[in-house]
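Dear colleagues,

As part of the handover before I leave the project, I'm documenting each prediction I ran so the next person doesn't have to rerun anything. This entry is a single chain, and its sequence is reproduced below.
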Amino acid sequence: MRRLRQTKIVATIGPASGTDEMLAHLFQAGADVFRFNFSHGTHEEHAAQLKRVRALEERVGRPIGVLADLQGPKLRVGRFANSKVSLETGNAFRLDLSEEPGCVDRVQLPHPEIFEALRPGAKLLLDDGRLCLGVTACGPDFADTKVVTGGTLSNNKGVNLPDVVLDVSPLTEKDRRDLRFALEIGISLIALSFVQRPEDVEEALGLIDGRAHLISKLEKPSAIEKLEEIVDLTDGVMVARGDLGVELPPEMVPAIQKRIIRACRQAGKPVIVATQMLDSMITAPTPTRAETSDVANAVYEGADAVMLSGETAVGQHPVAAVSMMDRIIKHSENDPAYPDLLNAGQAVPRRTTADTITESASRASATLPAAAIVTFTISGVTALRASRRRPLVPILVFTPTLWIARNLSGVWGVHTILAEMMNDHVDMDALAVKVATEENFAKSGDHLVITAGLPLHILSPTNVMRLVQIQHVETERVAEVPADIRV
């Protein structure tokens, strides 16, 4: 079960990677979580993919996370009479609600909510920021603009509004159908696109109603303005650098990424860095040196996971992309400078029993030194606390809840084990020793640092830490532990 690294890998499933054989190859290469992009594919196709992932999970005997990424509202211009036009810098151009095919002077923008929010001086970015329009006048059904950056504009290109907060839910009717479906088939990680404000997170959490964890995708400047509030509400965050890089000046994105990661680490919320990490590997067998540095920087900053999108969904080298990401992570984490760089973003412990125990466990694992930290958890919170401290030893997490075990597979340093809670600390210690030794995390003479919230069978805050040294005499006790566990 053991990955020889702490940072996790999320791989997107698509036409290039959706077979049983390819899923197995991606998992063996290092994928920890599989992302289903609900912008593409039918419900039937996603259900079939989930069956393949669960069959793989059964074969390898290890919980595998699945992330359903909702599409969110897509803002696009309409169609042109000749499919495309060339907009000259300095010329006037109108956006309106008319369904008439567009021309060099105007085009439909079928989103009245945009016109309601626009003000003179606002900017509209078209086609992933390749064209820019400045609003000169606007009303409830039109916007007159001046072309700031010209170029070719074709049918149905996307629209970004960096200066505007739209009064629109991040959940379209399609997203609501997709969310219901994802929950029905047992997907327990949901990514919410187009998050602008804390209220968007609250709306999605209300619909999920405790049946899954919510990952908020931060891709709007307005979300960064409310970063701490959004992080506090959500279960995790994705740094979605695609739209974020369009709506913000490119030079700002690295600093924003670092700020988001710091906020998530402080709050103990998992954070995924996504978009264009090894983008050239969609067609090339090896990445650029800049891309490898990009992945390494996310590792040094302490991100929980790094994500591959088109590289594994439609790319020509999906397995090589995962393997390359795995190698970059391992090399970065073995860098002698890694601990110091990781500690530079260390979360400050709160004055609580749980944080006191977690801080002590991390220090004890370094002082002894220990082979691993072991946590027992029902909700997963104890595991998140252990990971928040970023100890430089593996974290073995025992939980009786399958969907929690799957979701923790994307959390930094965590190796999940599905097992019933023990009746007392003696059985708890024995189970920890059994798994740690059988799975080669530890050997005779090594120490384990064990944390839990007692009583074990109810939701209790982390309040106990135990130090256990593995001895030959414990073998008989270990043999008594039920072997019906999944790692």
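The domain at 8-73+169-334 is CATH 3.20.20.60 (TIM Barrel). The first strand starts at residue 8 and ends at 13.

All the best with the project,
I.
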